[in-house]
Amino acid sequence: MSQSDRGLRRLAAGTLLVAFQGTTAPEWVLRELEHGLGGVTLFGFNVADPGRLSELTAALRGAGEPVISLDEEGGDVTRLAYHVGSPYPGNAALGAVDDTELTRRVYRAIGSELAACGINLDMAPSADVNTEADNPVIGTRSFGADAALVSRHTVAAVQGLQSVNVAACVKHFPGHGATRVDSHLAIPVVDVSLDVLRERELAPFRAAIGAGARSVMTAHVAVPVVTGQTPATLSGAALTGLLRGELGYDGVVVTDALDMRAITRSVGLAGGAVLTLAAGADLLCLGPLPSYDDVQAIIAEIVAAVRDGRLDPARLEEAAARVAALRAWFGTPAPVAAEQNGVGLHAARRAVRLTGETEPLVEPLVIEVDTPPTIAVGDVPWGVGPWLPDAEIVRVEPGAADVPALLAKAANRSLVVVVKDAHRHRASQDLVSALVAARPDVTVIEMGLPVWRPGSAAYIATYGAARANAQAAVELLTA
């Protein structure tokens, strides 16, 4: 391979954030980092405990200068606490409190934990204005449905993370909050006018850019007035025209995972990589599915696209310069003590809401209504069991639950029903309604968005299913 070929391959590899299985770095990842690979994205399956994660990130840094990223939003979407649930409430809870200083403190604490583990880019916060209650992918990940509220808390989150030198990655541009389709599965459409887009979806991104956000993540969402039927991730009109031009952003643009079906089923993984680079992206998050063979094929396709004129080499050089500037901002990693100040539980306690009155618990039966996890969240544990050790906990599938048997089991006992986003699942609503009709003294705990409310004696809204949310709910229940 000639020197020019090696240089071009290095530029192509420098745009990629790869993933891998396991808690140690494979040899191919370390080898590619030596040859200019942009970095890695870590997932829950890469995280065993803080000590082993620190060893992993140290090994990665020993091989190159990687961007080391993961999704740590607090709340439902957590990677550091994937196996136990987050000690921090998510954005919906912070939006319900609406104290920007609290949001800043929570994100500073999250950032300090990430920095202590060697993470330098957090794919957070979600700046989506969640105007669609039936949104299958955003929900409690959003600060709320009001653009001004989302804007001020997005700024606070950016400031909190970046105060400890962890780069924020504000997502999902130009807005995923008004959708009813999960872009992991298909291409959602935000069909609004340019005026609505500017006033609602773009407002938090404009504010985050003003606050110095170091990176912005694209959404695989079509906005017909800007992108036609093309997802924003692949649209020059969105990334270069709107984000770079109109909003004046000159930081790093990171793609959402390219292994999502909105990309793979439309233009393919390697084809999507070329198109998003041409559109203006700088770092391509490949997601957890692509193998090393896929990574090599993507690099080869980027090189081929430069050779045959589909991709301007200057675009790769521009991306490399932006990523280099981000690395310079990271500076030399210094030991950071993670903040163990209880701010997560404090925030969850401020967010939780009780309607009605609870009664002292008598041999409580807790029915947790199972809710399928979204792809973004993954299989993170949730529920109140850890905080009610003396209760009997029953997890049921809503469509298959035996209501008479459950009621018989609950006879002469306190009954607590725990649900998650009941407004999105008719089977959950039907089950809860049947239980409330027979036992109006039941307490219902909603661990998603409190959109649908049954007529129970007491109703507790947590605005999220993190560990901190569950503890705050149980404290109210047992007060």
UniProtKB/TrEMBL annotation:
Gene3D superfamilies in the record: Glycoside hydrolase, family 3, N-terminal domain
Keywords: Glycosidase, Hydrolase
InterPro entries per UniProt: GH, Glyco_hydro_3_AS, Glyco_hydro_3_N, Glyco_hydro_3_N_sf, NagZ_Beta-hexosaminidase
Residues covered by the Glycoside hydrolase family 3 N-terminal domain: 34-325
GO terms of molecular function: hydrolase activity, hydrolyzing O-glycosyl compounds
A biological process from GO: carbohydrate metabolic process
Record flagged with keyword Ribonucleoprotein: no
Pfam families to which the protein is assigned, alphabetical: Glyco_hydro_3
Family as reported in the entry's similarity comment: Belongs to the glycosyl hydrolase 3 family.
Protein name, as recorded: Glycoside hydrolase family 3 protein
Species assigned in the record: Nonomuraea phyllanthi
Taxonomy of the source species: Bacteria, Bacillati, Actinomycetota, Actinomycetes, Streptosporangiales
